[in-house]
Amino acid sequence: MFDFLGYEFMQNAFLAGILASVICGTIGVYVVLKRIVFISGGIAHFSFGGIGFGYLVGVNPMLTTILFSLGAAVSIGVSKKKVNLQEDTTIGILWSIGMALGIIFVGLSKGYAIDLFSYLFGSILAVSRQDLYIMAALSLIIISVVSVLYKELLLITFDEEFGNVQGAPTDALYILLLCLVALSVVVMIKVVGVILVIALLTIPASTSRLFSHNLRRMISLSIAIGAFYTSSGLVISYYANLASGATIVIFSSAMFLLATLYKEMKARKERRDMLGS
Amino acid sequence: MMEGKGGAAKVMSIEGLWVSYGNQVILKNIDLDIFENDFIGIIGPNGGGKTTLLKAILGMVRPTKGKIRIFGGRPEDAKRYMGYVPQRKDVPQNFPITVFEVVRLGRYSNRGLGRRFNSQDDEATLEALKSVDMASHVDTEISNLSGGQQQRVFIARALVNDPKILLLDEPNIGIDVAIQKDFYEMLRRLNREMTILMISHDVTAISSYVKTIACLNRVLFYHGTKEISKEDFEKVYHCPIELIAHGQPHRVLEEH
Known about the structure:
Chain A is an all-alpha fold. Chain A contains eleven helices and no strands.
């Protein structure tokens, strides 16, 4: 049944899926709890400019995407904390500039026509060994920062103002969190693409929220759920011959819906039992 | 250090404090001396600058003019002396975090960036939870508690560093009237060991428990007493108030 694992591209795909799950599980929890889903969308779409730029200058687009997504994270963070600019305006502008830049850069680059579609919707089956190394290095950075600054990230996610009173550098930590989101976006772009990154950042974390009472558990459960979503989606797409990124997103959403319904029914039953007793 | 009535030491002095946001003046020429074991209730209309005053004391809002001294130092340097309980609407109500973790976050200032909490922090956390009678709920998720219990947890978070001054912003919002008396009794108990500054809408309720009342509507009226003249009150609220006399409400609550 696991004959598909015989191909190197499938092995790479699974490893990429696992790395993406670890990252989206960890950072997604902060994205969901801190309510920065839209900001993350802005960062993801701006990073599309980086993909185009990579093609233009002829280096691995993942590397240029790192620069672009970090640039977006810092701009959004600084404009929110230091400049009196309305946050959703900044996000909206960066969102479209990134997409526009990407298209222009790709148009300027000579040579073979590239598959933009695969960057918009993901091409997990086209993950190369080099891509995997970059993803692994970024994941290592993200996980190290989160474990060293676990207490700080909890503080600013739960109650930023109180953190401020405590003398924590909350603005810097907020911008750092956005940078972690930016790096996560790069890790996930190959798996589900710019447009679907938001799904991986939010769906596993939201599913996990239904069954967790503290942050540590929410993160570990979210990683496990993410791994289950991406590998199941991948297997389904392989057998049904569907686009892998899109299949992962649809499968995750269906599972999240089921989990929400289950939770709601359980809560109703508990209420009924309590009234009945 | 200067001394006030009964020889109590001065913990805070505010002199000629002005705070503006842009062109809008929020606090106008505030003078206030606060002494050890004071329990001051600050009342006043919405938008009158009550929260801004607390934030200026906490060093979160910069004065446009004037100065605040806490134990002789600037607010920024006095953070370890102060415990702060923000308005409940500012605190997330649906977050996967246990009571213990919420309170321990108050120990951040003792640890600093990148250092893990240690057993000392855990002990201080338990102590603080005991002092608000919430030690039995350490592992409960905060969102599963009632409003009054949540408020006790946030007070424990403010107490976890043994503050000398406790600042509370509308602590009675979202608390059942039935348990408000217990809540204020708890504050009264804490007041034996620390100075308390509390913002409230609820004149009737607080007047039974605080020692003195200040009225704030950009300008501060404070005479170090619990009685406020009708003239001051009308100036603060910009309308005549017949009903509020501070003698009467005592009995209203005590009867419960």
